[in-house]
Amino acid sequence: MSFDEKIDVVGAGLVGSLLSISLAKLGFRVQLLERRPDMRSVKIGSGRSINLAVSVRGLNALKEVGLESTILEKAIPMGGRLIHSPEGNLHLQRYGKDDSECIHSISRAELNKTLMTAAEATGRVKIQFEKRVDGLEGLSRVIGTDGSASAIRKAMGVRTTEERLDYGYKELEIRPGPGGAFAMEKNALHIWPRGRYMLIALPNFEGSFTCTLFLPFKGTPGFDGLNTPADVENLFRQDFPDVMPLIPELTDQFFENPTGQMTTVRCFPWNKEGKALLMGDAAHAIVPFFGQGMNCGFEDVSVFSKMLETASDWDRLFAEFSILRKPNADAIADMAIENFTEMRDKVTDPAFILKKEVEKILQEAFPGKYASRYSLVSFSQVPYKEAFERGVENDRLLKQLCDGIADAKNVDLEKARSLVTSLRGTK
Ligand SMILES: Cc1cc2nc3c(=O)[nH]c(=O)nc-3n(C[C@H](O)[C@H](O)[C@H](O)COP(=O)(O)OP(=O)(O)OC[C@H]3O[C@@H](n4cnc5c(N)ncnc54)[C@H](O)[C@@H]3O)c2cc1C
User: Fold this and answer.
1) What is the pLDDT of residues 153-173, one digit of tens each?
2) Which long-range contacts (CB under 8 A, 24 or more apart) does 250-258 make?
3) Does the Cβ of 144 fall within 6 Å of ligand 1?
4) Is residue 425 predicted with pLDDT exceeding 80?
5) pLDDT value at residue 222
6) Ligand 1 within 6 A of 169 CB?
7) Is 142 in the pocket of ligand 1 (CB under 6 A)?
8) In ligand 1, which atom is closest to the CA atom of 279?
9) Domains, in order of start, for the chain
């Protein structure tokens, strides 16, 4: 393998741009082909969500290319979920054991632009904009990072399943208050759980919040029943009354902004011999409820770059990468679907709240021994598959400890100690 070979990367989104930096740092020359114009000079929608949450896996990959602190400077830490009840009461569910464990809200466009500029600054990456790629012809060794509807995946003829959720999403903006003030608690991910549907909001650096309404496409309520300003106002008046005054142009925004759809894409293998490989959403698009799609794609880049450093053969490298990552991508895809029910429904269920409180006590009482599934996914680099399996073991343990108690303070810590020692992470 020659380390000054030219590699074609298709798609200068988040994963393709980061991958190009990594390849360039290893000495490769990269041609990065992007179908959209350059978002640094032309105002275009950044696609998908306005902002997103980056956690440890994503931050680690950014650190490896020297960009973690640059990105964190423009991010807002979120220490937990702030639950808004229909009556307007607030309840914070912390994500980690303390303030050091938080996820960070960042602007998708800012992140993408920073990555593109850093890629070009290596002197080894040439980005070609407005270049839509339709197949593998004319390309050299190619890595497809062209998102969930990947043209490269189709051209490779890979076995693929696409599972569309029967829910859509709509983004709405809460503008900054006077002097850039945040209209709600700044350091939290806000959730208005309402059973079958929910609204969430993530803070933006300049004082605004991006809200996302997740609703079934069909039903009551559903996007198909929201056809007039009065329909939208009625929904918000009934379910999200504290949000209404924060978005004076609610109905204008509702009808101007597109309704997005969410799909889980699973495919295998991710490679065509040593000629083509898929990464990021092109290989494994997932629903957004664990905030891990990009994090998983960034982890792809980190894992691949390490494997590349010691690889001697492209065929083997591409095949081994695909085999190693696939079970982890499947695990986070499943956890993301599960987390939707947790966010929109379970967070208000007393049995779930008790379980979370007992879990918090265990994390504090047995540091390094007990870790929640959320922590394993968001604050560690334990493979997703292992996080999934340990989550199942945790659940069994929590059921035993919560049985017969109504208050987390009454948890039997001696019993907990012996149960925790039997967990896999403690061996
Ligand atoms: C509502 C929502 C919220 C989300 N929140 C989070 C979050 O909080 N945390 C998180 O980690 N993830 C989140 N995600 C997931 C995250 O957005 C994706 O996982 C991430 O964008 C994947 O990056 P990518 O580079 O693989 O693909 P994309 O971001 O889709 O980029 C693909 C790029 O390829 C280009 N392209 C496409 N086709 C072609 C072609 N034929 N030729 C050339 N170029 C092409 C596109 O223009 C684009 O630039 C969220 C997703 C959604 C929908």
Assistant:
1) 999 999 999 999 999 999 999
2) 250/172, 253/172, 253/173, 254/170, 254/172, 254/226, 254/229, 255/229, 257/170, 257/171, 257/172, 258/170
3) no
4) no
5) 98
6) yes
7) no
8) 26
9) 6-73+106-161+263-342 (3.50.50.60), 163-261 (no CATH), 349-426 (no CATH)
